[in-house]
């Protein structure tokens, strides 16, 4: 008991010294942050217990005086930065902490960190458009699904899609500290309800373990990847749910890029060649041949999937597919845009070709 009390006193003394001599310099860059924290000699042996959000320091330099210089050099998409929109400002917030105990206990020292940027012109928070969704997967991964504009440069400003035109759907996973992962879409269906019920009427878009079924009926394709952690489905609009609210329900998979087979893939049908093609490596398109029948994973047991990937369900919508020749098409568009602009703000990064 005496030893534990002495340790408590020692830690409190270290923290008091750290607070008294705290010298923290913050440099906010374009999408990144660089923090240098000069700490006392007493705190140097405990530098591994210093955190920026959930990130440990990138470097510790022991100075000739015995003091230390701790450096955090991270992206603003890492370390659990919180992104807030206020008027014309985009704010990223986090905390520097000293945690001498296990993470379940509160930090002994907390120092607020904030980077403030001017909101880019034309920037639209993702959830102001109903064509967006964010879902949590296992391992702390965050999955996104967003309806893009015609130029594939950002979030669509309307969720009304003319019949026969394209609705580019961008999906991505924020990898954070995980090894590089390949994002796949195992299945997608369209429905007129936000939640699927046993009796729900659905329209299959992607099925059979990653086959873009809609590519056999129209001109839908997977676009070339910008990054392994994102994928764009260039989906041609269809007649299902015409004039109604339509929701796209997808099963996203963050997968080991080295473990692809008939059960984990992204394939679309190329009509010119009259065959199914693998998006990520056309030379291995043989694994897509099952798209015309039934695709089965070569993995023997379901539990073996766990080390390779994480799978959440995401919902995008509502979207409204309109036949513009219909007399009420214009009125429906106006109502839809108004509804989209009234939602609360939230942000999401987009990487497109």
From TrEMBL:
Keywords: Disulfide bond, Signal. Residues 1-22 form the signal peptide. GO terms for molecular function: acrosin binding. Residues 27-274 form the ZP domain. One of its GO terms (cellular component) is extracellular matrix. This is Zona pellucida sperm-binding protein 3-like. It holds the Pfam family Zona_pellucida. GO terms for biological process: binding of sperm to zona pellucida; egg coat formation; positive regulation of acrosome reaction. It comes from Cottoperca gobio. InterPro entries: ZP-C (IPR055355), ZP-C_dom (IPR042235), ZP_dom (IPR001507).
């Amino acid at each position: 008991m005496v030893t534990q009390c002495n340790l408590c006193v020692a830690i409190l003394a270290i923290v008091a010294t750290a607070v008294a001599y705290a010298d923290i310099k913050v440099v906010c860059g374009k999408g990144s942050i660089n923090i240098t924290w000069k700490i006392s000699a007493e705190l140097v042996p405990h530098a591994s217990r210093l955190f920026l959000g959930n990130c440990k320091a990138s470097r510790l330099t022991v100075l000739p005086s015995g003091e230390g210089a701790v450096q955090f050099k991270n992206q603003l998409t890492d370390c659990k930065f919180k992104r807030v929109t206020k008027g014309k400002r985009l704010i990223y917030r986090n905390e520097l902490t000293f945690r001498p105990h296990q993470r379940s206990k509160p930090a002994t020292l907390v120092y607020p960190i904030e980077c403030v940027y001017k909101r880019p012109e034309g920037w639209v928070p993702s959830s102001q458009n109903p064509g967006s969704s964010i879902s949590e997967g296992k391992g702390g991964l965050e999955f996104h699904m967003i309806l893009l504009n015609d130029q594939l440069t950002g979030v669509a400003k309307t969720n009304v899609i003319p019949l026969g035109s394209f609705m580019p759907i961008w999906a991505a996973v924020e990898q954070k500290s995980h090894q590089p992962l390949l994002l796949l879409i195992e299945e997608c269906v369209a429905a007129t309800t936000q939640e699927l019920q046993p009796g729900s009427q659905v329209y299959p878009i992607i099925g059979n373990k990653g086959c873009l079924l809609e590519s056999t009926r129209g001109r839908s394709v997977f676009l070339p990847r910008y990054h392994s952690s994102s994928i764009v489905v260039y989906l041609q609009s269809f007649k299902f749910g015409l004039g109604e609210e339509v929701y796209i329900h997808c099963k996203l998979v963050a997968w080991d890029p080295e473990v692809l087979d008939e059960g984990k893939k992204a394939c679309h049908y190329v009509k010119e060649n009259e065959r199914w093609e693998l998006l990520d490596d056309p030379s291995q398109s043989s694994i897509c041949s099952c798209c015309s029948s039934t695709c089965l994973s070569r993995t023997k047991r379901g539990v073996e999937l766990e080390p390779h990937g994480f799978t959440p369900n995401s919902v995008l919508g509502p979207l409204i597919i309109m036949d513009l020749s219909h007399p009420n098409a214009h009125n429906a568009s106006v109502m839809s845009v108004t509804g989209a602009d009234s939602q609360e703000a939230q942000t999401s990064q987009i990487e497109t070709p």
